[in-house]
Design brief:
The protein is mainly α. It has helices at residues 8-22, 41-50, 61-67, 79-93, 112-121, 132-140, 145-149, 155-169, 188-197, 208-215. It has three domains: 8-67, no CATH class; 79-142, no CATH class; 155-215, no CATH class.
Length: 220
């Protein structure tokens, strides 16, 4: 027997049945859907994204549930859900969210500031002792600018950036050269200050200009 068309109405009916059965709304990894044949919530999520004659595409399960009022604002929150919201934000904007980003588009009534607080304080079922920047760095390989600027720095790393800058522009960088193109979040001025003051594990008492005089490679 052919399966019935996969429509929004059918997906929401399955979601309501899942809630009644488990006490929670389904997620992408919630497994098989009883009474659906061989559908799983992962295949439903994929169908929402890819589209069909009955589904417009570009959608996700958690977005559909949120729009239909099926995701309580103050209910339990999981790391998986936060990462799904972050992935959707990144796909729309090309940037990862921060605590200052504002509202979570896919979760009306929720802000990224609240999510960061929940991660830190262990609210809404989260373990606590975490943060939004730490979560994105750990699970998505994205370090926030503030975390990058506070990470340890070595003279050898600075010299690598210096030589790349010279090969690209034909001149050596100075403290006024602006962003370090090969190190997102780094700036030649802050590197010069770190060399002078001994920040970020550097010995101090130096400067970008002095480092260049000591280690400048021959032209060419």
């Amino acid at each position: 027997m052919a399966r019935p068309p996969l429509t929004v109405e059918q997906i929401l009916a399955w979601a309501d049945a899942h809630l009644e059965r488990t006490g929670r709304w389904p997620k992408r990894l919630s497994g098989a859907i009883p009474g659906s044949g061989d559908e799983t919530w992962a295949t439903v999520n994929a169908a929402l994204w890819s589209g069909s004659p009955w589904l417009p595409g570009g959608d996700r399960l958690f977005q559909l549930l949120s729009r239909s009022g099926r995701t309580p604002r103050s209910g339990p929150l999981s790391v998986e859900t936060i990462l799904e919201w972050a992935d959707a934000h990144h796909q729309r904007t090309g940037r990862w969210p921060t605590a200052a980003t504002g509202n979570v588009v896919d979760a009306p009534g929720t802000t990224w500031l609240n999510i960061d607080a929940n991660l830190r304080r262990g609210l809404r079922g989260l373990p606590g002792g975490d943060s939004l920047p730490a979560l994105l760095e750990r699970c998505r390989g994205h370090a926030s600018r503030s975390r990058r600027r506070s990470s340890p720095l070595s003279e050898s790393q600075v010299l690598t950036w210096v030589r790349t800058h010279y090969r690209r522009h034909g001149r050596w960088p100075s403290g006024a050269s602006g962003p370090v193109e090969d190190a997102d979040g780094e700036n030649w001025h802050t590197i010069d200050v770190a060399l002078r003051k001994g920040y970020r594990g550097l010995p101090g008492g130096s400067s970008l200009a002095q480092l260049l005089r000591r280690h400048r490679a021959p032209k060419g």
